[in-house]
Amino acid sequence: MMPKLPLITLYCAAALMTTAAVADPGAPTPVEGDYIAPEFHFQSGELLHDLRLHYTTYGWPQRDAAGHVTNAVMIIHGTGGSGQQFTQAKFAGVLFGPGQLLDASRYYIILPDDIGHGRSSKPSDGLRMRFPRYDYTDMVAAQHLLLTDGLKVDHLRLVMGTSMGCMQSWMWLETYPKFSDAAMPLACLTVQIAGRNRMWRKMLMDDITSDPEWKHGDYSGEPHGLTAALDMLAMVGSSPLEMQTDYPTAALADADLSSWLKERLAKTDANDLLYQVDSSRDYDPSASLNKIEVPVMWINSADDQVNPPELDIAEQAIKKVKHGKFVLLPITAETRGHGTHTLPAIWKGYLAELLVESAH
């Protein structure tokens, strides 16, 4: 029986035209909802009334004799994404179906849209640059509020995240150390956003804010600087082997880039993107890695240009995590650079290992 949830509206995802095209028809049916936080205080000191936190779920919570949730899994998306990316066949169809590792008949799977993303509150709703300047700390606090106050979930069997969600998984382990049994961060590093990772983010933001058409966020049409910003995203998230294989001629490469850019321009707001990329400014879990007690399975891909393996950061950092394991996936015809994080067919064996190790 579906629990009564305060300040939340629920509805079937099949009714949403944006999800119908990507949801896996063979997977369980997801349910979507909104949790409204009446007053949310940001790290900046700003306050937003009625912060909307959108989410998608599969399955239902199970509770032990003391009333504690035992089967909840939260999966956190990356910069510019939403929980909907995990409803696609390449993810939900590999993990959430009958007999699969995160079978929705056994697990309560929670896919939040972070602040500033998806159908959660964001600058393009109307406030534009007057929207509170959120950071990762705010986003993690909002996720915790959604779970505890909105969904009445007081414990996670597993927290998993991709890219930005990977970084926020580390923050969960340090901010709420007893809240989850295990964690699986995918595609990130455990240091401050610096070096080339900071530089491309700064260049992307400057592409937008230095454009006179941006008008300090009060544009009537998307500024041309958004095109340059998206070009930057296309390159840092790309996989050289895949792109050379799939687009071996100049004509094919140009056509694909043109098609991708047209699609992204149609659904990207410059202010939203600016806030999304800027929100990483407070990230740095490096000082408290040795305090993490639960099993951690950390996975990066060797063709990830956002988190290149030659930095040797992950290999050194994992030594500080008591029950941590780091896996660097080799480059293959199946890996997709930074985007390998959303292809569980490649790394699900490590998830199975983590679930066994962390079971009690």
Protein model, in words:
By secondary structure, the chain is of the alpha/beta class. The protein folds into two domains: 8-193 and 280-357, Alpha/Beta hydrolase fold, catalytic domain (Rossmann fold); 195-279, Orthogonal Bundle (Rna Polymerase Sigma Factor, Chain: A). Helix content is 32%, strand content 16%. The chain has eleven helices and nine strands. The protein has helices at 17-20, 92-95, 136-150, 164-175, 195-209, 225-236, 240-246, 250-267, 270-278, 313-317, 344-357; strands at residues 8-12, 31-41, 47-58, 72-76, 108-112, 158-162, 183-186, 296-301, 324-329. The chain has a nine-stranded mixed β-sheet with strand order 1-2-3-5-4-6-7-8-9, with helices on both faces. Helix 5 runs antiparallel to helix 6, helix 5 runs antiparallel to helix 9 (270-278) and helix 6 crosses helix 8. The two termini are 26 Å apart.
Question: What's the end-to-end separation, in Å?
Answer: 26 Å
> Which radius of gyration do the C-alpha atoms yield?
20 Å
The percentage of residues in β strands lies in: 15-25%
List the secondary-structure elements in sequence, H or E: EHEEEHEHEHEHHHHHEHEH
| Tally of separate helices | 11
How many domains is the backbone divided into? Answer: 2
CATH topology assignment of the largest domain: Rossmann fold
What is the topology, as strand order, of the major beta sheet? 1-2-3-5-4-6-7-8-9
CATH homology group of the largest domain:
Alpha/Beta hydrolase fold, catalytic domain
Which structural class do you get from the secondary structure elements? alpha/beta
Mind describing the biggest β-sheet? 9 strands, mixed
Name the poorly predicted regions: 1-22
What is the helix content? Answer: 25-40%
Average pLDDT works out at 93
- How many DSSP-defined strands? 9
CATH architecture label name of the largest domain: 3-Layer(aba) Sandwich
CATH class of the largest domain: Alpha Beta
Name the overall outline.
globular
